[in-house]
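Hi there,

I know you've been waiting on this one. I reran it after we fixed the sequence typo, so this is the corrected version. Both the input and the resulting structure follow.
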Amino acid sequence: MTIWIVTAGNSDVILKEDYSWSRLYEQAQEADKLDCWHFGSLNRIDPRNQDAGYSTAARVLGIVYEDQLDDNFEDLSFPLLDNFTEHLKSQNNHKNLGVERIIMILTNQKNVFTSEEIQDPKCPYWQDTCKLKPIFKKYFQEKFSQFKGEIEYLEIEPSSPSEGIVS
């Protein structure tokens, strides 16, 4: 059995452009979905390249887009995942991925940090990828509509700071 283990980091889902961001971010704030209201700005990936896109904290991106995917999925880009997908397809004559199972590893450190710590935009809590799960589900549905194998989402969730992902 061939298994593809996929990990995601904070910059593995980016925004192609910033047209919808302010509106969607405000909607998430109004719905009281964000733990922190004083940050969530986009960062241009390359100031010299207008087409490079924007990044923001993975948790914020996932929260903002989780209920907006049907209308706004095209805002998102998956540079590394797309490259790996194309490589796997090219190795298998573009018919399929050549894998029977995909395991997507996501992180969630909600039990590691205090509410005071998560008020800091640099807290690793904001880099967690667990809130990107709906985005990745949609990605796999669209990119692998013919995939007959199993896609499993494995969430790593330490229960205390001593078990945390960061030290």
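Quick highlight: The longest strand covers residues 101-107.

Best,
R. S.
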